[in-house]
Amino acid sequence: MTDMRVDALDVHSPVDGQLIGWLPTATDEDVAGSVLTAREAQPGWAATPAAERGTALKAAARAIREHAAELADVLHAETGRPATSALDGVLAGVSTLEQYAELGPVHRGRSLQGSPDAADFMVPGPRGVVVALTPWNDPVAVSCGLVGAALVTGNAVVHKPSERCPHTGVLLAQLMVDHFPPGVLQSLTGDASVGAALAASPHVDVVAHVGGTATGRSIAAACARTGAKALLENGGNDPLLVDADVDPVWAAEQAAIGAFTNAGQLCTSVERIFVHQAVAEEFLAALCEQARRWNADPQPLVDLRMREHVHAHVAEAVADGAHPLVGGEVPDREGAYYPATVLDRCTPDMRVMREETFGPVAPVRVVASFEDGLAEACVDEHGLAATVLTGSMANAQHAWRALPVGTVKVNAVFGGAPGGAAQPRRLSGTGFGYGPELLDELTTVKVVHLGQAQIHPSSQASRAAS
């Protein structure tokens, strides 16, 4: 018997294109009902002692840890992310929940210095109903961050995972939901129209979105109409600068890790490379060798639609004069595979240098000086992250101050201490999306002035008599 499905998400394997499964798409009634349910449940959850909210989050983290391998398998099947990396992403999500479970109960306001006969203080409280729209490239870790921080601060959450990994989102919700009161955490599946309906709801207080720039801009417009807070991390066009004094082979290894990890499908992937002409020849040769190594064990892109997007950027660049040193062609095989690609002779006007390609592509531009590369790297509509490879402390200092991005990494393409929280710029979004500061984003502060009342004489007399 054939399933009768009017509105459904079909999920296909990026490895061979086979149907993995399907899930129903939420209707307008589902969206409205979930938001109103969250609105009704939120005050009771906000009144729950902060320590109890933290305990509930710890219990949810334990449940995910116990089922981490199962969740990683689903993530691998839906997105093609290698099994080991998928498990790392799940465990990163567990750690994030555990951190917020500890940080939430100690999130505090402050007292103010007013007149001696009064008390003045600032008290943080939950914003209300939070919609969390999360991506497919690191779905568990990102979801645990946004959902965990929202829940531990007393908000109710309606979560919609990406339509590219809905089974991952559903399983994550199933592992978490029983540890919270009914209605406090809900999950809906659906395509972009479901996310748009959630963002447009007049009963939502925060829309937190990690994903594409175009979607982020539409969410910002919707929030401007409803008055909801928009918390956005919308990808970037991250540059990498290679100075004349660094080992070009080491620099090529760093560039390859930044451009090819997870098939280039990370928000902070290296998207454009500026290399000093003094080391350009050796750097390009070493980068090509790195690309060939990555191509020996390829990872698929998330789907064929993403591959078409990536190849369109590459094909346009080649047509405009870029030289493909490695890769650059759609492979003749099943699945959504695309080779690690190195493009030489790139120019700033090429789309592969102006926009987020989000694939395993390393576009290279040779520059006459570090200053020239830095100046070009600073010209961009995005503002997420950047990497600088240099042995000069002066150049490093100048670069991290000049680059108009939220995160600058010097001499390591990935890495950093835990707890860091950056604010993206321009098209890359707005607000702190990670770290302890995310608790500030998901709460609102109320100022209280507590003065002394003038007591009516009759009340004073009755008090004295009692």
UniProtKB/TrEMBL annotation:
Pfam families found in the cross-reference section: Aldedh
Domain Aldehyde dehydrogenase per the UniProt entry, residue ranges: 8-448
Gene3D superfamilies: Aldehyde Dehydrogenase, Chain A, domain 1, Aldehyde Dehydrogenase, Chain A, domain 2
InterPro entries: Ald_DH/histidinol_DH, Ald_DH_C, Ald_DH_N, Aldehyde_DH_dom
Keywords assigned by UniProt, alphabetized: Oxidoreductase
Gene Ontology molecular function, alphabetical: oxidoreductase activity, acting on the aldehyde or oxo group of donors, NAD or NADP as acceptor
CDD domains in alphabetical order: ALDH
Designated name of the protein: Succinate-semialdehyde dehydrogenase/glutarate-semialdehyde dehydrogenase
